[in-house]
Design a protein that fits this description.
Largest sheet: 8 strands, parallel
Number of strands: 10
Low-confidence stretches: none
CATH superfamily: Metal-dependent hydrolases
Strand order of the largest sheet: 1-2-3-4-5-6-9-10
CATH architecture: Alpha-Beta Barrel
Radius of gyration: 19 Å
Structural class: alpha/beta
Bound molecules: zinc ion
Helix content: 40-55%
Oligomer: single chain
Number of helices: 16
Order of helices and strands: HEHHHHHEHEHEHEHEEEHEHHEHHH
């Protein structure tokens, strides 16, 4: 399949960070407008290179590049623009359903309240949905390494049914267990928001288990370290307790291949995407951070085809898996699935 045919396929994406997907020109313009002088360069090509954290091989190094995008997202106008442009760029890439996430607490450095931050993002998303053929839901992130996740949860539930569809824990995984945020997780679930948690990106199966069994996550962000709970034996792979739970309950895994290559320093063919898929795990394909990983969902589809043997029917299956795992009402889900099925049938 050529790139253009991959781009034209209707796609769905569950794991996409708002502050990881800015246009580089927008970063420069916003920095200029607010007098932010700390960008490494104001040349678009050079800044594109800089953000492409290529082989940093460290999640912490990768996360540090967010300082700049977050610094320019401190006014309602900037946040609205970034959210609108994210929707526009995703639609251009053939994405018909997206969940975009960010941590509003990080956008309060210049005095905005979480609610103002969320309203600005929701306004940008509404504008993108009015312009383009795309459905977008917002996921509110709390940071694992911040103490006040309950305030994030409270702000998220205020916009349940008004554009906010889910809640997530993001940030450094080691040393910051998901169940430190049990109260926040319980609150959002009580109010009917979807719950996904970054787990098993860097840390192992026990981190995934905490997210699922203790916090009640419905989906797992990344989850690729589940591989360390799978042993290859002579008579086939042997799944440990957590791996068996994740597979047998068909917990959706939000796999973001390029992001993992960058933060974990692994080779394309060594990424566990293909193996997890063939073992029957509920795999979805996502970009994580389009700017820092210099990637689109079309690129991730191409990655699956080129490095892991995915055929068109496999791409159909992971797209349907994403829609089935989406935090969306069933009526919308059915319409989106029908569109995807029709496109793959033609
Ligand atoms: Zn992520």
């Amino acid at each position: 399949m050529g790139r253009e045919s991959l781009r034209s396929l209707p796609k769905a994406e569950l794991h996409n960070h708002l502050d990881g997907g800015l246009r580089v020109e927008t970063v420069i313009e916003l920095a200029d407008a607010i007098g932010y002088r700390d960008l490494p360069t104001s040349d678009p090509a050079a800044l594109t290179e800089w953000f492409d954290q290529g082989d940093s091989g460290s999640l912490e190094g990768y996360l540090a590049s967010f300082d700049h995008t977050i610094a320019v997202m401190q006014t309602p106008e900037a946040i609205e623009r970034v959210a609108f442009e994210a929707g526009e760029d995703l639609a251009t890439d053939g994405v018909i359903y997206a969940e975009i996430r960010f941590a509003p607490v990080l956008n309060t450095a210049r005095g905005l309240r979480r609610e103002a931050v969320l309203e600005a993002a929701l306004a940008g998303i509404s504008r993108a949905m009015a312009k383009d053929d795309i459905v977008i839901g917002l996921i509110v992130d709390a940071m694992r390494n911040f103490p006040d996740s309950l305030s994030d949860a409270r702000s998220a539930i205020r916009y349940a049914g008004k554009g906010v569809v889910g809640f997530d824990l993001a940030g450094p995984e080691f040393g910051f267990p998901a169940d430190d945020h049990l109260a926040a997780c319980r609150l959002v679930r009580e109010y009917g928001l979807g719950l996904t948690i970054h787990a098993g990106e860097a840390d192992g199966p026990s981190s995934i288990h905490r997210a699922l069994a203790r916090c009640g996550a419905q989906r797992i962000g990344h989850g690729i370290q589940i591989m360390s709970d799978i042993r290859v034996e002579a008579n086939g792979p042997k799944l440990g307790g957590v791996a068996a739970m994740v597979r047998d309950r068909q917990i959706p895994l939000e796999i973001c291949p390029r992001s993992n290559l960058h933060t974990l320093g692994i080779e394309p063919g060594d990424h566990p995407l293909g193996e997890l898929y063939r073992l029957g795990f509920n795999v979805t394909l996502n970009t994580d951070n389009r700017l820092m990983s210099r990637v689109t969902l079309t690129d991730e589809f191409g990655f699956a085809v080129e490095h892991h043997g995915f055929r068109k029917s496999d791409l159909h299956r992971v797209t349907a898996a994403a829609l089935n795992a989406a935090f969306v009402d069933d009526g919308t889900r059915r319409i989106l699935l029908e569109r995807v099925d029709a496109a793959y049938a033609s």
